[in-house]
Amino acid sequence: MARSVAVAVVLVAMAVAASAQAPTAAPTTPSGPPNVTAILEKGGQYTTFIRLMKETQQDTQLNSQLNNSFNGNGYTVFAPTDNAFNNLKPGTLNSLTQQQQVALVQGHVLPQFYSMDSFETASNPVRTQASGTDGPYTLNITATSNNQVNVSTGVVDVTVTNALSSVKPLAVYSVDKVLLPFELFGVKAPAAAPTASSTKPKKGSEAASGPAGSEDAAEPTGAASARAVGWGVAGVAAVLGCLL
Ligand SMILES: *[C@@H]1O[C@H](CO)[C@@H](O)[C@H](O)[C@H]1NC(C)=O
Ligand SMILES: *[C@@H]1O[C@H](CO)[C@@H](O)[C@H](O)[C@H]1NC(C)=O
Ligand SMILES: *[C@@H]1O[C@H](CO)[C@@H](O)[C@H](O)[C@H]1NC(C)=O
Ligand SMILES: *[C@@H]1O[C@H](CO)[C@@H](O)[C@H](O)[C@H]1NC(C)=O
Q1: Is the residue at 64 inside a domain?
Q2: pTM (two decimals)
Q3: Could you point out which of 5, 14, 18, 132 has its C-alpha 20 to 30 Å from the C-alpha of 214?
């Protein structure tokens, strides 16, 4: 008798526990696709990026792609903080056309889900949503096994820190710099020469010492040796001049 009461109590207790678990588990399990805007809003420091996504309609675009079962690879978003936008030169965003702003935002979105660990498998250069007819708009990603991940556009290098979301199909990572695309900020073409983007800046042009600096590293050496030869010839001429 006592035993059957005890069994009944245990059964009731189990039933209560089960029914108590069900309602608490349900709201934490997202029923629909992830919402990039909601994730960014929750992060609390991405108001400029949210506004840019909205203005360029990349928020609705990405949300509808996330709701499309054909896009099985998922997506990765690098979300610059408000601080990152504040650190841009004043007028940087306003200097861009609407189409360039779209490319800027799309350059922060990869058509592939990467967890912090799987960045190591990325093969450079990595395509973004901006990659296409207007240019490569790729990123280079370097990762070490201790979860250090660097992203480079060729103009901007940044270390990826915290994940706002890393549940397939959407990973969102915070970055503290805006990933300025090389295509828009890499080579400042002189206004007079629209085709100059394919020609190298002349040596001695100090303005080109920024992102293109490493490419030109060999030139000063060549110039210096040419100058050395020049001085050598002058020296020989001077010596000959004295002798004659
Ligand atoms: C995504 O979240 C934002 C902000 O919470 C909301 O305004 C928007 O309607 C949501 N979009 C979808 C497709 O659920
Ligand atoms: C996702 O797509 C389904 C089917 O097309 C649609 O019924 C649903 O409203 C969409 N959900 C959102 C959040 O857009
Ligand atoms: C990432 O960048 C930091 C700072 O520039 C550098 O110290 C670090 O070695 C880089 N890590 C990788 C994996 O490239
Ligand atoms: C990106 O990686 C590719 C392939 O490794 C390399 O050819 C290219 O120079 C890199 N670009 C930058 C900007 O680091």
Answers
A1: yes
A2: 0.71
A3: 132
